[in-house]
Each structure stands twice: as C-alpha cells, then as structure tokens.
Design a protein that fits this description.
By secondary structure, the protein is mainly β. The protein has a single domain, classed as Sandwich (Immunoglobulin-like), CATH 2.60.40.1930. It is globular, with a radius of gyration of 15 Å.
Length: 121
C-alpha cells in the first residue's frame, strides 16, 4: 500500500485581454492503496468575484466535505461543512468580508481534496 499524490497547476489567459492572467487553479487528489480511485471535482465561480462565491462539488462518493478558504499566505480564513447528495452538491458562500486578493478554496473529504484559486475584487 502506498499514497499517490498528483498536483496540477493551470493558468488561463483572460479572453478580453484586460489582464495578463485571469485565474490559477491548483488541483490535488490523493488515494491510499492500489485501485482506490478517490476523486473530487470542484468548480468555484465567478472568478474574479466580488466576494459571493458559488461552488459545485462532484465526487465519486456521497460524503460530508469541508470547504475551506485560505489566503495567499496559506492562513485558514473560513470553513463550511457541506453534504454531497448523490455525489453532487452546489451552493453559495458569502466571502464579502475578505480583502481584495487571491484566495484558495479547498474541498476536502475523507478520501480526497482539491483546491481552486479565486480572485476577490
């Protein structure tokens, strides 16, 4: 048995060319043991945001997830518990009290986790 960790980093070009980069997304999934395909897909929008953030979580399992917000220094800012229903959940999160900047939204379950970067304007 071992632990498999995969990281991806992607940068998206702003389509209207008003800024150099629109967003960065960082994804991480881990699984313990061979043949255990633990996975989660997280979408966070709009990006950039005024502080109201919508999220969609799709998972291979029905479970409770913690959604966490971190600042660019890695400090935990906020936590929210959500329950997937038929392996999917969506909702809104009020982060309007945060300063302008880049934040990381992380969805973490007992088997996997993933993160997305968002910009608060």
């Amino acid at each position: 048995m071992g632990i498999r960790i995969a990281k991806t980093i992607a940068y998206e070009r702003d389509p209207d060319m008003t800024t150099n980069w629109m967003a960065a997304s960082i994804g991480m999934a881990s699984a313990e043991g061979p043949g255990n395909d633990a996975g989660i897909i997280l979408h966070v929008y709009p990006n950039p945001s005024n502080g109201w953030v919508s999220y969609d979580i799709t998972s291979s399992d029905e479970e409770i997830y913690k959604i966490k917000a971190y600042d660019s220094m890695g400090r935990l800012i906020a936590v929210k518990d959500v329950q997937t229903d038929n392996e999917h959940v969506n909702g809104n999160w009020d982060l309007t009290g945060l300063r302008k900047g880049i934040y990381f939204i992380q969805a973490e379950g007992c088997k996997s986790r993933t993160s997305k970067a968002i910009i608060i304007q």
